[in-house]
Design brief:
heterodimer; A: mainly alpha; two-stranded antiparallel sheet; B: 6-stranded mixed sheet; 6-stranded mixed sheet; 19 helices
């Protein structure tokens, strides 16, 4: 009955729905190409191998964190503690590598440290049923506070051997290590989502949690694991970002969570859960967002323009997401 | 000769707190048989399903499944025991493909990875067995409701279900889809799958089922019977019972001129050309089965949902823009069915809730509330409605019982002294004592000249309280009965679409 009512009322909006479906399938590529053309017309250096590689390097840390948050968002949740997780893992890996820890060790420590925060988030959300926004908002403050407690209010420099190794290494001579990491993470994440039952159950929980429970899907476990994955990848993103930036101030990565979430939504991952992919959705979203910022820099735009443009992009992305999900029968 | 018994339920009881929802339910289900389960709304059919499905534990009684004791603790227990449920609200994941939906909970025998090819092939095989031509790789959101239902059935087949429960499976199906479903059910029966078929569509039940069981107020009425040994009339009379308690205080009222007139309201397929009038001081009942469009009509009139076309006249003037704020200004009120979500601020005090609609009358200067006056009027209403609360100003509404919550909702609207009011299921989930007080309040309003539209699924209360009853079936008004024409049989026959106004004359002659 629901469906029929919708079809009668939906007549006027049928065209819009058709447009949105095509837009999320092909439109983002078109937008991306248009952006590239536009910025190239402003500064011919924009469309060059070097700048392309540069763009991917800039995308690396947000892209890795974005891959993680897709899991959480697919279950219908949200995690805004990722910026603080990035901060604390950047701090911890800077301190530990100064004390002699190698790259492999730093990688494991940052993943583990992020996963630990993810465990707390996951426990509070999945087991105690507290609202994700509130849980992760609290964690955002707590984790940043702990990290500042470790190092004090000072800018920490991450320019030891490991830091340089992360930034400078090129795989096979052309591909920067961090871009390689980004691609591996995205491929693994997407494999998990589309080729395993765990991934399908993540989609199921986000679509119809009650139904999933009634069918015996272990929803608590699924939701918990999503937060753990999200935390671990945010931790890794912190390591990458810390090495790239070099100077880790107490405000390191603040506001990143919203940029990442909105990029992902822009790419077509729904805020309402159950819809979206890491590749291409989240990847394209992050890339477009970074492309806008990079292009504006190269076109020598006033710095304040970034936030205005970013704000507008976020608004449009969320608006489209809401329209896409209106009156849907689940 | 007799077929093997697969499910035996003996003296099954279920209480929610002090409320007895199921009382000594007894029935047996034989291999390959279809058992029809019928009863009015709230007779306990869904609860029975939930108890057998492991969603609610039973309070007492004995259930035997395939000769062994059966005590499901969680939904998986029912699935593993070979019971599948096709709920009215389908349990599908619209963002996944058909094949993924069919196998989602299996985890494919501890294999963490899924092979799209493998599940698609297996899904095709199952769908093919059911004679369906659905692409296993298409997303469920692209399918029609009928197709979705078929996918749900395919899930049951994939789990190798021996017993399938159908809960109102036909409400959202087109006639053709219904035909396919019925063929499948007969097919299953031949293969030795037993089914329990719950439906309001009695014709379907009579056509499909081998035996029939009637539930009323949580009890089985009469013996479980072979379908060819009972008539439709007998089934209806078992469903409605013959009791009429004296709890309905009908009073003679002075019915005045027309206050509301509704003409040709249409909304998609849910409302088809509905017209009626309500006069001052008149209580008009609106009866129909679930999904008949009663609530939709109320929402359409009050403007909380948009109607496609139709005219509304209020106090003789046409209503141009229909929206709730306008209605309230005009002195009309709407008490929704969903009181917890729509009618109450659960975390606020009784008093805060009571004065919510009449805040403007309580203002002092510059819009500041006159709290003395607030206490005064709240206390008056609490007394009048006999709301059981210790502290009018501080007790939160969520701590009141269901009946008292409902009284708060009614009190809230009474404060604005409405000239026209719509009550949607005002007594649902309310105990007998509170019901009586609510009826008194309704009568009280009508005596003061308020026109009342009283929507209910309980025939007894409509018959007891109303001056006139309108009956809806599938979005249309099928009948209108005056007080001297009220009988439960007639009401139900109109509601299941067996009678419509054209045939009323014939029915009278027979009677």
């Amino acid at each position: 009955m629901e469906k029929r009512r919708e079809s009668v009322r939906g007549l006027k909006t049928e065209k819009l729905d058709w447009f949105l479906e095509k837009f999320y399938k092909y439109g983002l590529y078109v937008v991306f190409i248009c952006l590239v053309l536009f910025f190239t017309s402003r500064n011919s250096n924009f469309f060059s191998f070097d700048n392309g590689r540069n763009l991917l390097q800039q995308t690396a840390s947000s892209g890795i964190a974005a891959a993680g948050i897709v899991f959480v968002m697919l279950t219908g949740g949200i995690d805004i503690s990722i910026s603080s997780v990035m901060f604390i893992t950047a701090v911890i890996s800077a301190v530990l590598t100064d004390a002699g820890l190698g790259f492999g060790g730093a990688l494991l420590v940052s993943l583990a440290c992020g996963a630990a925060v993810g465990c707390i988030n996951g426990f509070l959300v999945a087991k105690l049923h507290i609202m994700p926004l509130i849980v992760t908002l609290a964690m955002q403050y707590v984790v940043r506070g702990v990290a500042i407690g470790i190092v004090g209010i000072q800018t920490l420099f991450f320019n030891n051997e490991v830091g340089k190794f992360i930034v400078k290494t090129q795989v096979a001579g052309v591909l920067p290590l961090i871009v390689f990491l980004l691609l591996v993470i995205m491929a693994l994440g997407q494999f998990l989502l589309s080729k395993t039952w765990f991934g399908k159950q993540v989609y199921a929980v986000g679509n119809n949690k009650l139904g999933a429970e009634q069918m015996g899907i272990k929803t608590t476990r699924i939701v918990f694991l999503s937060y753990v994955i999200c935390g671990a990848l945010a931790g890794l993103a912190g390591l990458v970002s810390g090495a790239q930036v070099g100077g880790i101030s107490p405000t390191f990565a603040t506001g990143q969570e919203f940029i990442i979430i909105s990029s992902v939504v822009l790419g077509g991952v729904s805020l309402f859960g159950g819809k979206g992919t890491i590749f291409p959705n989240a990847f394209l979203g992050v890339l477009i967002m970074m492309c806008i910022e990079n292009g504006l820099v190269m076109a020598r735009t006033n710095m304040y323009a970034y936030t205005i443009v970013r704000g507008c992009v976020i608004f449009v992305a969320v608006l489209l997401d809401s329209i896409k999900n209106r009156g849907e029968t689940r | 000769m007799d077929k093997e018994i697969v499910l035996k339920v003996e003296d099954l009881c279920k209480n929610f707190g002090p409320v007895k929802v199921l009382e000594e339910v007894n029935f047996t289900l034989k291999k390959g048989e279809v058992l029809g389960l019928v009863g009015e709304n709230g007779a306990g059919k869904s609860t029975l399903m939930n108890v057998l499905g492991g969603i609610h534990p039973k309070s007492s009684g004995y259930v035997e499944l395939f000769g062994r004791q059966y005590e499901p603790q969680k939904p998986e227990d029912a699935t593993n025991a070979g019971i599948a449920f096709i709920h009215q609200e389908l349990n599908l994941f619209t963002n996944l493909t058909v094949a993924e939906n069919i196998f989602i909970d299996k985890g494919r025998a501890n294999k963490p990875f899924l092979s799209r090819k493998e599940i698609n092939e297996e899904a095709s095989r199952i769908l093919g067995k059911l004679g369906l031509s659905v692409d296993p790789n298409s997303k469920v959101e692209k399918l029609t409701m009928g197709m979705r239902q078929m996918v749900e059935i395919a899930k049951a087949v994939a789990k190798d279900a021996k017993i399938i429960f159908f809960d109102e499976p036909t409400t959202s199906l087109s006639p053709a889809e219904k035909g396919t479903l019925f063929e499948l059910i007969q097919e299953f029966s031949k293969k030795g799958i037993s089914m329990i078929y719950i439906s309001h569509a009695l014709e379907d039940v009579v056509m499909l089922c081998d035996e029939i069981l009637v539930l009323r107020d949580g009890k089985t009425i009469g013996e479980q019977a072979k379908i060819d040994t009972v008539t439709l009339d007998e089934i209806v009379s078992r469903m409605v019972g013959r009791r009429m308690e004296q709890m309905y205080p009908y009073v003679e009222k002075n019915v005045g001129e027309t206050i509301l007139s509704v003409e040709h309201i249409c909304q998609g397929r849910t409302l088809q050309d509905v017209s009626f009038q309500i006069k001052k001081g008149e209580i008009v009942g609106l009866f129909g089965l679930m999904g008949a469009g009663r609530s939709e009509l109320a929402h359409g009139i009050f403007g909380t949902e948009i109607i496609d076309s139709g005219d509304i006249q209020y106090k003789g003037n046409p209503v141009k823009t229909i929206n709730p704020q306008k209605w309230v200004q005009e002195g009309a009120a709407f008490i929704t069915e969903n009181r917890r979500d729509e009618g109450l601020l659960l975390k606020k005090s009784v008093s805060d809730n009571l004065v919510l609609c009449s805040l403007s009358q309580l203002g002092k200067h510059f819009g500041v509330l006159d709290s003395k006056k607030q206490i005064e009027v709240s206390k008056k209403f609490v007394e009048e409605l006999r709301i059981k609360t210790d502290d009018v100003m501080n007790q939160k509404v969520c701590n009141l019982s269901g009946g008292n919550q409902q009284k708060v909702v009614i009190g809230k609207w009474l404060m604005i002294e409405p000239e026209f009011i719509i009550l949607d299921e005002p007594t649902r989930g309310v105990d007998v004592g509170a019901k009586e007080e609510i009826y008194h309040q309704i009568n009280h309003m009508a005596l003061q000249g308020t026109g009342v539209l009283f929507i209910s699924s309980e025939m007894e209360e409509l018959i007891g309280v109303c001056d006139r009853i309108l009956i809806m079936h599938k979005g249309q008004l099928t009948g209108e009965l005056k007080r001297n024409e009220f009988t439960q049989d007639t009401l139900l026959k109109y509601a299941i679409g067996e009678l419509s106004d054209g045939e009323k004359e014939g029915e009278r002659e027979r009677a």
